[in-house]
């Protein structure tokens, strides 16, 4: 079955989907994106993802490509046309196409919108949840506005590649003070020595993950106490549990970091309990 992409007003076969060579996303990483999960034929946490998209766009002063209602229609259509029941959609908005110049183009240049969708392998995800994953730590060498979900992901891509080359699945960034910021494409959580669920405050040092926000709702319902505070690499290595979250990786347990075993080396029970209740509590809308 051929994949279909939405590109600037048209639904086109994925293999023929093209953007212009002077798209500012291509030349300056001048754009933002969202990745949102589809599960059992339902779109998960769409409102929060679109709220964050609005915020990212406004922080960069890029106009919304269309109304929220129209955008939701496009997303649904792309998910439907690709027959995605379990997977994700990817949405990207750039400042548009203009002759290369660092300063913004005139207001008449329309933002460019691309939406794609793909199925993911539920078995691969289940295996990661069952066995846990390995991570490495790397210095956080990103700019100081990573709260904006910008397509400028080169440090993240390099960090993930390094993780892969070292036999791990995620790279966890450490700031200049030795404190954990977040993963290359995930937020990081620990269960500390006192049994609290700890994650870094969502300042400019991390992306405020949608999974992170919904997970806090879930933890509250389950009576798991949360502490939003910074924690060091050393505290993470000594934690009872470590797990990471993103839209398509809800509570992946981390059982080894930099070759050191975390907890008893097996996925922790808090991650499992939270994951077990996540989709009951998250917003779900039909395709
Ligand atoms: N990444 N931190 C970073 C740097 C991320 O790239 C992501 C998501 C997250 C988690 O955000 P959320 O819970 O809203 O997915 C945190 C997506 C999945 C990606 O780049 O593919």
Explain the overall architecture.
There is one protein chain. The two termini are 19 Å apart. The mean pLDDT is 97. It contains 8 helices and 16 strands. Helices cover 30% and strands 29% of the residues. It is an alpha+beta fold and 287 residues long. The chain folds into 2 domains: 4-120, Aminotransferase class 4, branched-chain amino acid transferase, N-terminal domain (D-amino Acid Aminotransferase, Chain A, domain 1, 2-Layer Sandwich), CATH 3.30.470; 125-286, Alpha-Beta Barrel (D-amino Acid Aminotransferase, Chain A, domain 2). The strands form 2 sheets. Strands 7, 8, 9, 10, 11, 12, 13, 14 and 15 form a 9-stranded mixed β-sheet that branches. Strands 2-1-6-5-3-4-16 form a 7-stranded antiparallel β-sheet. The structure holds N-(5'-phosphopyridoxyl)-D-alanine. N-(5'-phosphopyridoxyl)-D-alanine (PDD) binds next to helix 6 and strand 13.
Write a concise keyword list for the protein shown above.
alpha+beta; D-amino Acid Aminotransferase, Chain A, domain 1; D-amino Acid Aminotransferase, Chain A, domain 2; 2 domains; 16 strands; binds N-(5'-phosphopyridoxyl)-D-alanine
The profile of the biggest β sheet is: 9 strands, mixed
Q: What would the average pLDDT be, to the nearest integer?
A: 97
Number of helices: 8
Distance between the termini: 19 Å
SSE topology string:
EEHEEHHEEHEHEEEEHEHEEEHE
Residues in helices, as a percent range = 25-40%
Q: Using DSSP, what is the number of strands?
A: 16
Named at the architecture level, the CATH assignment of the largest domain is: Alpha-Beta Barrel
CATH topology of the largest domain: D-amino Acid Aminotransferase, Chain A, domain 2
CATH superfamily of the largest domain: D-amino Acid Aminotransferase, subunit A, domain 2
CATH first level of the largest domain: Alpha Beta
Portion in strands: 25-35%
Task: Supply the number of structural domains.
Answer: 2
Supply the helix-strand structural class: alpha+beta
Low-pLDDT runs: none
Shape: globular
